[in-house]
Design goal:
The structure is a homodimer of 345-residue chains.
Chain A lengths: L1 E7 L2 E6 L11 E9 L5 H4 L10 E2 L3 E9 L11 E4 L2 E2 L5 H4 L10 E2 L11 E4 L2 H4 L1 E2 L9 H8 L4 H11 L7 E5 L3 H12 L4 E5 L3 H10 L3 E3 L3 H12 L3 E6 L4 H9 L1 E9 L10 H6 L2 E4 L4 H14 L10 E4 L3 H9 L6 E4 L2
Parallel strand pairs in A: 11-12, 11-14, 12-13, 14-15, 15-16, 17-18
Antiparallel strand pairs in A: 1-2, 1-4, 3-5, 3-9, 3-18, 5-6, 6-10, 7-8
């Protein structure tokens, strides 16, 4: 089969690899219909994360059709359309029971030494626990709907996790640090949870346009101390709820700096280095969050996407075929696209 | 009057300074009867924190007798015995109302350019909001009781804040990182809040003895990776509630490392540098806490001390007079004492 493989910095190719196949009795094989390129895929692409062994499978966001199931798979069968969260999980351990599927005792991530999502097919461990079946009535020829559903594999749930971690409730005043796909989904999630005021920190016109469509009420384009001062001015001293959707130490420090004493920062970006917590200490700001247990959130977010009450599809503003996946990476790398959708026949 | 002043590294003296006096109408002047030396006093004492301007007042933990009140003070009068938390606060702003007195819009700390607590008297701003009056029946000639009450100025409330921040509830399994006065008070607080298992990480026999008296069920003497592995073994993968009571970046990282996925670290020590949050991210561990709003906790802890249900007095294991305050610093610096009480006539 064909699968996306990274060979080195800015060198992503679609190679011939062995077909995805059942291995354990709890596995399924899913033929991929939609995959996405994630902002975190850009870390190895840009050479910031080393590419282990020189060659590794790419992609952790996909949906598709079940092609085969192992003997112990109970809830899925060939032909089911499914969404995969970016991590697999048994659905049955202490942590899955607590809604923390990313800490599943049998869990893991797509890509690397596992099949990647930017490919024709994927072996899915713990298929019953991992995959979410789409209702039969869902029409995937509806491009907008299919695009919206594809965000449930990661960014929509990750933005939601930022909002949940930041303890957003109806009436909240919220700051969202970052206007990438996750930040935009954070705006959407804060709005969905009833936030009254949503201040987005970003500087890209196209993205801020989406932020406003998603419910942002204010934007702060200044960076660094200037941006922090601007938020302090808008909020009379900081917002009680801050979503950190960038994932650098600097972004987390900015998130803390714009947070009100006693407030909460929800962080979902992978920290790239140690974080200064002095301001958090002085102001008793909680720093919560982490890698999003997207599996836990898919059912409720899926229901809202299908009901039409949320539409995260605008974050996927470029569509490419699998053969052209490298164009998707390049467009995101050069900020010509927020996020790329990969469609397969 | 006589007051403790730091002149440089390991150079703490009792100097003649201008008498504490009313300045604002909301002030009181308190004659100090008991003060303490805090672990954080050792930072400037050891030269780790620069001494601003070369000379600065010391001490932020004291209790005493009201000697004078300003025209706007409503709830206190001359002769009242009072406990002062380590920060002053107006008791009336958004943050005080939320129980976050250390973020009071009119707040500040003792020492430095304010009067310090290790002195004959202190000018107390916002006296109504800051001071807690002792019931008339309290017998301060009872040395044990007076010692226990002196811990309410800081360490007892700070340990409590660590436990509250770590979300300790009845039945919790808890790790306490650090066996200093705050760590020991953290053990006491966790026990008071109903924790079932309390694992203390420390290595000093005398302190671990106190920890056991305060409710610790297990002790881990190993440090670093060995200590982390030992806690993982004792808890089958980490404790859901961890109290960080040291206040170095390394201690916070250790606290995160012994925390269970989805768990909470309550930190109350001043971080001395940036903190690696990678493990917190991977495991969705919340890092909460900060400078303890001790004022908020004094009423409930005072009630328990007076009722005899908690006795934090063993953390103050050395008593000195004001003239000998330098001996208290030296004993703590050399770890001959957990914490020093300063008594004044």
């Amino acid at each position: 089969m064909r699968a996306t493989v990274i060979h080195g910095t800015r060198d992503v190719r679609v190679d011939d690899v062995p077909d995805a196949a059942l291995f354990d009795a709890t596995d399924a094989v899913v033929r991929v219909t939609h995959a996405c390129v994630c902002g975190s895929d850009l870390w190895p692409y840009r050479g910031i994360w080393p590419v282990e062994g020189g060659v590794t499978r790419m992609g952790h966001e996909f949906m598709g059709v079940v092609e085969d199931v192992g003997a112990d798979v109970r809830t899925l069968r060939r032909g089911d359309r499914v969404i995969a969260p970016f991590a697999f999980s048994d659905g049955d351990c202490e942590f899955c029971d607590a809604g923390l599927h990313t800490s599943c005792v049998h869990g893991g991530y797509w890509g690397g030494r596992n099949d990647g999502g930017q490919a024709e097919a994927v072996r899915v461990p713990w298929a019953d626990g991992t995959l979410v079946r789409l209702p039969d009535a869902v029409d995937l020829t509806d491009t907008r709907l299919a695009t919206a559903l594809a965000t449930l594999t990661d960014v929509c749930g990750t933005g939601h996790h930022a909002a949940v971690s930041a303890e957003v409730v109806p009436g909240s005043t919220v700051v969202v640090v970052g206007d990438g796909a996750v930040g935009l989904c954070g705006v959407l999630a804060a709005h969905r949870l009833g936030a009254e005021r949503i201040i987005v920190m970003g500087r890209h016109d196209d993205r801020l346009d989406v932020a406003r469509r998603f419910g942002a009420t204010d934007e702060v384009r200044e960076r660094g101390d200037e941006g922090i001062a601007r938020v302090a001015e808008l909020t009379s001293g900081g917002a009680p709820h801050v979503l950190e959707c960038v994932g650098t130490a600097q972004a987390i420090e900015t998130a803390i700096a714009v947070c009100r004493p006693g407030g909460t920062v929800g962080h979902v970006g992978v920290p790239d280095g140690p974080v200064g917590l002095g301001v958090a200490y002085q102001r008793n700001i909680a720093v919560r969050g982490g890698v999003a247990p997207v599996r836990a959130y898919i059912p409720e977010l899926l229901a809202d996407v299908l009901a039409g009450t949320i539409d995260p599809s605008p974050v996927l503003d470029l569509t490419v075929t699998l053969d052209a996946v490298a164009d998707g990476y390049a467009a995101m790398d050069e900020r010509r696209a927020i996020k790329a959708l990969v469609t397969l026949p």
